[in-house]
Amino acid sequence: MSSPISSSTAVKQPSSDNSPPSELALREIPGGYGFPFFGPIKDRLDYYYSQGEVEFFRSRMKKFNSTVFRCNMPPGPFLARNPQVICLLDAISFEILFDNSKIEKKNVLDGTYMPSTAFTGGYRTCAYLDPSEPNHAVLKGFFLTQLAKLHSKFIPGFRQSISGLFTSLEEELSDKGKSNFNALNDIMSFDFVFRLFCDKNPSETPLGPTGGPKMVDKWLFFQLHPLMSLGLKYVPNLLEDLVLHTFQLPFGLIKSDYKKLYSSFFNSAGPILDEAEKIGIKRDEACHNLVFLAGFNAYGGMKALFPALIKWVATAGEDIHRRLAAEIRAVVKEEGGVSTAALEKMCLTKSVVYEVLRIEPPVPYQYGKAKQDILIKNHDSNFLIKKDEMIFGYQPIATKDSKVFEDPENFVADRFLSEREKLIKYVYWSNGRETDDPTVDNKQCPGKDLVVLLSRLMLVEFFLKYDTFSVEIGKLLLGSLVTFKSLTKAT
Ligand code: HEM
């Protein structure tokens, strides 16, 4: 069946520059912000406690009959000076967030608040810089070059890290009858990223075999707690709200952990830091950026994505497992091993990875401030956004746009097979279209191709070893808790 966007009765294909077609009426942006202080607090309590994240957006979308509306985004007082945003919830209006000529991405990585730069050695790391700031091109260009140089290490490095994960998974399953995938995935992801950039096993550093992920987790929590709810039954909501969403937890409490993390990278990533100095980046600035890229961007992303990948593939059922295993084993046999070329030939595996990135984008929020008055459109109307207004895209709803994707709420393993692969331009997980490339002039994730490759590789390694499996799904602070209950070895 063809997807709605490709059928002749579908909405008009949006032009790639988001220029508003004249036939759509200009509509005032519905919604509002309420009274100062009380409005943002009400929205924050709705968001975390009375409605929950998804319902918060869906109920307003319904109430205003619009995928574009005004609301406050948490955390609000006293962490964010201005919590007022224009919220975008469809695949078309969302694209304005990728237009760096109209949108400023300075200090908006975490939304309407920014953690203290004490967490990053006093520097604003690359992810907080707008492309108009010269340091963005210097740092991003540097990392793009380093990633290109490390290309040949991606597949062997990941295969090595993941083989340790499988060994532990099997041991835990046979000892305890279950295994926490998230914990093993954290160790595997940190191990891979550290070895990639430092060419050393983290166990050979003061971090030890499991210290790295634990320290990064704490450091991430201290930066991201304003966006989290612990959901603890015995802690009253108002108390949690006060502790997590009102003030920034001080860096001093995790200073010694960060120092240990930083010095492990500083002492092990010599060659990369030498390269950075050669192009004029200060050694300590390069290292704080490396810790951020490895810990926040890469490890943080993999911490959310891989459990989601396993969860969706598990719930897709045994028939999909059989088809994935058959495809993967046939291609590996034909190609004589696991290579980039082999991964490229695995159509179902590719489609499954894109579908996971569509249905559960690992980084759900994107922000940007209007550099000028901007006319945007959704499927039905045009809207005028004024200069300096904050624009916010909630990706998990935007990539379930029923005018673009058929059966958008469901996981469809074949969704991006053959002809339909063109729909990946509406997959936005990397802060850009899946058909675009990260450059020094945009804010798209420079790890985009690596992440897609590793996700495919995870499925390949898994289905070379196992026929099928089952898991139990729970909820974590950011993402899903995945517990393996059974694993059937390849026959
Ligand atoms: C599953 C893993 C990953 C996910 C989900 C992810 C996601 C993202 C997203 C959504 C952004 C844009 C943030 C924004 O401005 O709104 C981003 C930016 C960035 N990512 Fe990734 N990323 C992942 C892995 C990586 C890896 C492996 C690297 C490098 C090795 C990396 C390096 C960066 C950097 C440096 C930026 C800032 C880009 C800029 O300032 O232009 N990420 N990532």
Structural overview:
- The chain is of the alpha+beta class and 491 residues long.
- A five-stranded mixed sheet has the order 2-3-9-6-4.
- It has 15 helices and eleven strands.
- The protein has one domain: Cytochrome P450 (Cytochrome p450).
- Helix 5 packs antiparallel against helix 10 (283-316).
- The structure holds protoporphyrin IX containing FE (HEM).
- Protoporphyrin IX containing FE binds next to helix 3, helix 10 and helix 15.
- What is the CATH first-level class name? Mainly Alpha
* CATH fold type: Cytochrome p450
SSE topology string: EHHEEEHHEHHHHHHHHHEEEEHHEE
Rg value:
22 Å
How helical, in percent, are the residues? 40-55%
Low-confidence stretches: 1-17
What's the number of domains?
Answer: 1
Share of β-strand residues? 5-15%
Structural class, by secondary structure, is alpha+beta
Please tell me the CATH architecture by its name.
Orthogonal Bundle
Characteristic terms for this protein:
491 residues; alpha+beta; Cytochrome p450; binds protoporphyrin IX containing FE
Summarize the structure.
The protein is α+β, with helices and mostly antiparallel strands and 491 residues long. Helices cover 45% and strands 12% of the residues. A hairpin with a 2-residue loop joins strand 10 and strand 11 (479-489).
Task: List strands and helices in order, with pairings.
Layout: E1 25-26, H1 38-50, H2 53-63, E2 68-72, E3 84-88, E4 103-104, H3 134-149, H4 154-176, E5 179-180, H5 181-198, H6 208-224, H7 237-245, H8 255-268, H9 270-278, H10 283-316, H11 318-335, H12 340-344, H13 347-359, E6 365-370, E7 374-377, E8 381-385, E9 390-394, H14 395-398, H15 448-465, E10 466-476, E11 479-489
Parallel strand pairs: 1-8, 3-9
Antiparallel strand pairs: 2-3, 4-6, 5-11, 6-9, 7-8, 10-11
Bound molecules: protoporphyrin IX containing FE.
